[in-house]
Amino acid sequence: MDKTTLMATIKEVVQPYTKNPEALATLNEDTDFIRDLKINSANLVDVVLDVEEKFNIVIDNDSMEKMINVRAAMEVVENKLAAS
Amino acid sequence: MTITTILEKLPYGESFLFVDTLEYIDEQKVTGSFTFRPEMDCYKGHFKTYPVTPGVLLTEVMAQIGLVCMGIYLTGGPAGLSFGLTSTHVEFMRPVLPGEKVTVTGEKIYFRFGKLKCRVTMINEQGETVSSGELAGMIIGPDKIRNS
User: Fold this and answer.
1) In what order do the strands lie in the sheet with B129-140?
2) CB-based contact (8 Å) between B86 and chain A?
3) B140–A contact, CB cutoff 8 A
4) Pfam families from the entry (chain B) (predicted)?
5) Which residues of A touch B136 (CB under 8 A)?
6) How distant is the Cα of B35 from the closest Cα of chain A, in angstroms?
């Protein structure tokens, strides 16, 4: 999967949880889920579960803790897809 | 973990304990009940002319039985940690009057990364659905409670 598609899919996943539509509109690799998108930590769990479902992967606790921004989320997904 | 142990580990005091008994619990499902005592304070003001159980208290009964008891069962009620309610999506279908007994069933949707989400339904003694919805909570440390 190319990076553009991957980022677009992540954008789609976070959309229902973000409290900041401006940051969503300009979403890029540096976009932070909590600081920029204002996603609360409880909803961040749902973001991770939706990412699992979307890409058919399983995300462990360590990977989940790394997923603080779009870049980290893309890396986790790419690594899991490569390993599967 | 036994039902008695779970009830002992509930963090609520008498004025805000909304679980009388649990009938059943396993890793997927919990059933418990509570009777709204007519002398409860809320009925003096909700409403002034006729008493009806407030929806927030129905939600609280659903949360204590369907979410907190399940959370204690799944985690052992970890020392020094607490649960915080993080979301409620609840519909109310019927009123609950003073003295009515309600039975709550909670079914785990998931318990991942410290967050527990359950589908919860409440029925009255006639077996009619009073309210239902989805509730979620997270394990949080005592420091988080103080800072928030």
Assistant:
1) B21-25, B29-35, B101-112, B115-123, B129-140, B82-92
2) yes
3) no
4) ApeI-like (PF22818)
5) 42
6) 31
Domains of chain A, CATH where assigned = 3-83 (1.10.1200.10)
Let me know: does B38 contact B97? Beta carbons within 8 Å: no
Q: Is B138 on the interface with A (CB under 8 A)?
A: yes
Tell me what ipTM this predicted complex has.
0.91
> What contacts B56, CB < 8 A, 6 or more positions away?
none
Q: How far is Cα B20 from Cα B103, in angstroms, rounded to an integer?
A: 10
Spatial distance between the Cα atoms of B42 and B50, rounded to a whole number of angstroms: 11
Q: Show residues of chain A in contact with B147, CB under 8 Å.
A: none
pLDDT in tens, A7-53: 999 999 999 999 999 999 999 999 999 999 999 999 999 999 999 99
Structure-block tokens of residue A9: 């899919």
Domains recognised in chain B with CATH numbers: 3-147 (3.10.129.10)
pTM listed for this prediction: 0.92
